[in-house]
Design a protein that fits this description.
Helices cover 70% and strands 0% of the residues. By secondary structure, it is mainly α. It has one domain. Helix 1 packs antiparallel against helix 2, helix 1 packs antiparallel against helix 4 and helix 3 runs antiparallel to helix 4. The longest helix is centred in the N-terminal third of the chain and has 31 residues. The model has no long low-confidence stretch (mean pLDDT 89).
Length: 152
Amino acid sequence: MILDSRASRTYAPWLWVLAILFFGRVIAQVLVVFLNVTFLPPMQQWQSGLLPYPLLLASQSLILTLLCKIAADFTRGEGFFVHPSRRAGKYLNVLGLIYLAGMGVRYVYTMSVHPERRWILGTIPIVFHCVLATFILFVAAYHRRSGEEQPN
């Protein structure tokens, strides 16, 4: 199968921007936890509390590694993540839309239960889950468009 590397390279800058945004969140949270910086929001605004911070940091590191691998494949125009697959595009699109919609529901729920957090207090996790959902949707869009000509 011949890949059109130009197609993947048009998505690469957007994927890198989203990965860098997520990296910024991880670094900012590390600064708050380990260096007690005061110019960033306090820890309770960075984390929902579902995972203990060491486990959260480990999972964020794995996610960031995966985002960078995907973005690097798109930049090079070759690799596992850029082989066109219409089926992958459909599944990723559904996953990304459910993820994004879930964050919308989470935001509405959070604001109704904690009205003192309106509009941005306590939304850092939600915003960065939206960043991840958007990353998935960009990859899905590439596969849906590039996989149109490829048999699955």
